[in-house]
């Protein structure tokens, strides 16, 4: 049922445009596009249902007929690079032609902010931009689009552009630098597609069908389907889910929305700042309740009784559930989304009215911010009753105690499937050479789930683009965050290890590690040139069959106990930089991990077992910002890892 609803919605999104003389070709086909060489060339679009479509690519011609929903597709024989082509699609009384198309290799680059990071902010950006002109590199940016159901459209500004300083300035730096490197060795035209959104979680890039197959996203997907049909129905269903979560994690807050609660002992805070500016809340993430009293005149209450009032709270970081006189009026998510709730008749009265807000902050900032003067009741006659400049507040539950709340699944970057629907679906099944993925920072709190979702994403995208073995390149997360003198758990290390294991399990997945080229003070390191170079090495190995390329640093092959030492065998000879011995190795028993000495000999690392330790696993580079000095002979860093120890 859900897939049927999504299909109907997708068609509905496409068909209205047909009535207004929409282009016959799908929007991914524009002037200056690159078509994938060496494979059948798929072309598609839309026209009136039942229409005959004549399609010409250069001198080749074929025909297609639209289906009942107005969609058509055609396939041309594979081509190799050559002269620029034109592509024409004709129906009775209508025609569309695009020109200056090249045949070459097309890479889809996606992820969060480190993929989105533009060339104009990279190292030595002025010089890089001055050399960004290349008529054989073509760039397409999808822009940011989040939708509850798949679409076939792209924003009108999402068109293919010839590489130039202007076109490249805001394009993904990592993607561009990889493409530039590949031009040096392939000498073929390169098409690069940038579909990225900063801060996005991986779940938002996987289709609904892909998430459903994982087995624990069905409730969120059902809420999303409701939202696609009716925004109000979806919000109500999500609000009920949020209430169930809150009842479980903060039972002590039962009754905190009631006007009968005595909150005279609650602390106070200004009504227009993030709560982190208040003493004691500087680093607080979690749930805080806010209360304020709003006094209405008899005239104002009479207006409200007719349904003529709206409560304006300004933005609430990140999630609010708002009550008036103990009755819930709505919930929303979005740290900078202004909250405005229409008040149903009978909820307000003359005199004192209690406004209560359950505010949940998941990371940084927090609370109801924005100008206090804009918070209050807006009446239909233009009058306004201010809420006042102060909230009474009480801490309920920290995020560490409660765990993350259920997010609104329609919310771009933190939802389910919405970026897949809005930014990837319009591209499929465009011919590709492969994918490039730089993401994971937003999922460092859940490495175990990332181990399920990353393979699901890879399979989902390969399926959508018709290539079950299409190369998939992953950037292993860069170092970021404070360094510590003692071992500790690290979600960053956990995600890096997932990336390593996924690459090791699939011969068509390549890992380009950035663990040594980050910035411990900046989650967005500027050295995207080296990221692009390392990605190009993996592309040459996987996509172009260059067996002479060493595309990654050392990775573990086996770990076992030999006598009084643990021996780690690597997949290649290694060297130690800036020291005589490798650092960052840990041995762990059943209760704790400790740093240990290490000795390198060729492709083996020996770790003497300290007295009294019964090691069960070994770790390397297991930190948010590990200090690594173990490299391959070609200067690429060894991958961080965690492995169980096999006894001999």
Summarize the structure.
The chain is an alpha+beta fold.
Q: What count of helical segments does DSSP give?
A: 14
Mean of all residue-level pLDDT scores:
94
Query: Which structural category do the helix and sheet elements fall into?
Result: alpha+beta
Radius of gyration: 28 Å
Keywords:
35 strands; 648 residues; eleven-stranded mixed sheet; disordered N terminus; alpha+beta; flat
Explain what this protein looks like in three dimensions.
Helix content is 23%, strand content 31%. The chain contains 14 helices and 35 strands. Strands 1, 3, 4, 6, 7, 8, 9, 10, 22, 23 and 24 form an eleven-stranded mixed beta sheet that branches. It has a six-stranded antiparallel beta sheet with strand order 11-21-12-17-14-15. Strands 13, 16, 18, 19 and 20 form a five-stranded antiparallel beta sheet that branches.
SSE topology sketch:
Layout: H1 2-18, E1 34-36, E2 41-46, E3 52-57, E4 60-65, E5 71-76, E6 85-91, E7 94-111, H2 113-116, H3 125-130, E8 134-141, E9 161-163, H4 165-168, H5 173-186, E10 190-196, H6 208-214, H7 218-229, H8 231-249, E11 267-270, E12 286-296, H9 298-305, E13 309-317, E14 319-324, E15 327-333, E16 338-342, E17 351-361, E18 367-368, E19 376-379, E20 384-386, E21 390-398, H10 399-402, H11 418-424, E22 434-438, H12 447-464, E23 472-476, H13 491-505, E24 509-513, H14 528-542, E25 556-562, E26 565-570, E27 574-576, E28 585-588, E29 593-595, E30 599-601, E31 604-608, E32 617-620, E33 630-632, E34 641-644, E35 646-647
Parallel strand pairs: 1-7, 7-10, 7-22, 8-10, 22-23, 23-24, 25-35
Antiparallel strand pairs: 2-5, 3-4, 3-6, 6-7, 8-9, 11-21, 12-17, 12-21, 13-16, 13-18, 13-19, 14-15, 14-17, 19-20, 25-26, 26-31, 27-33, 28-29, 28-32, 30-31, 32-34
Helix pairs in contact: 1-7, 5-14, 7-8, 12-13
